[in-house]
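Pipeline run #58 for the internal structure catalog. This entry was flagged by the ingest filter as a single-chain record with no existing model, so it goes straight to prediction. Upstream metadata was stripped on purpose; only the residue string is passed forward. Reviewer on rotation: M.T. Logging verbosity set to normal.
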Amino acid sequence: MSFRTIAATVTGCLALAVVATAQQAGDAAQTKIAFVDVKRALVSIEEGKAKRKELQDWARPKEEELQRLGKEIADLQTELNAKRAAANEDALAELNRRLVAKQREAEDKQRVAQRDLEERQAVILRGMGEKLQAVITQYSDANRFTAVFILEPDNVAYLAASADITDQVVRLYNEKYPLQAKPAAPPAK
């Protein structure tokens, strides 16, 4: 059984347990359950859009450098292949050494860039996740939800539109944590 199947089963069982517990307790209040699509919320929130653009702007020079290195590697491979029949062994060895060094440089830069990107994403997601949790809790308490689950759209057979509170959470997040306008750059002298 896949992890997703197990997770969906556990989530379903938890939801049923919450409903059953509330009904058994004889609670006169209606049991309310909702779902939040966290992935969709994070990309829909204005702060999430701005952070994604910041990450793209940060990554662009690194991508360009990796593309430049890739072109240099391709050029060295072409040169090595072209000279393979005519050049002496020392010249071929030197070309091969330069090629291997360039490949290692590209691999190292790729690893470092990937690690840095993942670290930046983790910091961003941690900060936004904490704020998103606060908004979900506030909204859930105000609207008397018994439980709010994280929506995994691939693991849901049916979900009433009224049970998906993602849009309301995004709206409240944007209201509670509006984007701060960046100060205008000072005029050039």
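catalog note: Helices lie at 3-24, 38-44, 46-83, 89-142, 166-176.
catalog note: The radius of gyration is 27 Å.
status: ready for reviewer M.T.
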